[in-house]
Amino acid sequence: MDSHQAKDLVILFDLDGTLSDSDGIHLKVFQDFLAPHGFKVDEEFFMKNIHGGQNVDIFGRLFPQMTIEEINVMSEEKEELFRSIVRAGGALRPVPGAVEFLQWLEGQGIRRAFVTNAPRANAECMLEALDIARYGEALVIGDECARGKPHPDPYLEGARRVGAPMARCAVFEDSPSGARSGLAAGACALIGVCTTLTPTKMKEEIGASFTISNYSDDNGLREYILNLRQQIMQHHQGEEGGGGEETKNRTVEKQEVVMMDNDDVVVASAEAPVDVVAPPS
């Protein structure tokens, strides 16, 4: 890593619903998988009970009588069904413009990593199907961290893996649990990918600083990223040079994020000193 990269912006991407247009496949898999157990999985049920969650939590809520061993068996059966659909080809597509955006980031020299709650086998299957694995320096799996999303652990691990503080990491997310994970970790910006949620919900209820429906180059996303990058670089240049009165008088704010589960019960909170970077105007 050169000295420029050591002070530069880093992008941490979720996968499902953020880079891969996979929510429709997950919905169909859960519909087929849970129907024999008496569950009718429509979009409302999916968003409330499944979207963005880990299998151990999803099945634990739906089948509270099951042991962890039974939940693990059920989870693997469901995930193998998902992977078989992806491997068959044609069903999984990238979110429009995602591949071109990853290529643009690479051309700009902006480093990237993937951070997901998907099991490793699923994540690797999706990355291979979309042919985008080479655009990420690291792949962080929620199940392999002490806690998955919505806790901050996966994004903190992503930052650690690329050697950057979270104050220089922007997070791309589509789900409430993933967004809360990124915010709790102290991301400098949260870009909400509105493949399932509305921009209003992403901004007003979850706290996204910028929202997109896809990665089209005419939605202002690239300009936003370049402005954010410039702010971060200028901030660190100011710190190195003493920063004048503005930097001398600058205080490091504390960000406290309270994360809620689907029943609005507090499941975690994080309080840590973070460098607060205002969104570009």
Give a verbal description of the structure:
The structure is a single chain. The protein folds into two domains: 10-19 and 95-233, Rossmann fold; 23-88, DNA polymerase, domain 1 (Orthogonal Bundle). Helix content is 44%, strand content 15%. The protein has eleven helices and eight strands. It has helices spanning 23-34, 43-49, 55-62, 68-88, 98-108, 120-130, 153-162, 176-185, 199-206, 221-240, 244-248, and strands at residues 10-13, 111-116, 139-141, 169-173, 189-193, 210-212, 254-260, 266-273. The chain has a six-stranded parallel sheet, sandwiched between helices. A two-stranded antiparallel sheet has the order 7-8. α1 (23-34) crosses α4 (68-88), α3 (55-62) crosses α4 (68-88) and α4 packs parallel to α6. The model is unreliable at 244-281 (pLDDT under 50).
End-to-end distance: 30 Å
> What do we call the CATH homologous superfamily of the largest domain?
HAD superfamily/HAD-like
Query: Portion of residues in helices?
Result: 40-55%
CATH class category of the largest domain: Alpha Beta
Q: What count of domains describes the coordinates?
A: 2
Major sheet summary line? 6 strands, parallel
What's the overall geometry?
Answer: globular
What amount of the residues lies in strands? 5-15%
What CATH architecture of the largest domain would you give? 3-Layer(aba) Sandwich
Instruction: Find the structural class using helix and strand composition.
Output: alpha/beta
Average pLDDT taken over every residue:
85
Counting DSSP H or I runs of 4 or more residues, the number of helices is 11
Low-confidence region ranges: 244-281
Task: Write out the strand line-up for the largest beta sheet, numbering strands in chain order.
Answer: 3-2-1-4-5-6
**Quaternary organisation:** single chain
GO molecular function: catalytic activity; metal ion binding
Cofactor: Mg(2+)
Pfam families: Hydrolase
Protein name: Riboflavin kinase
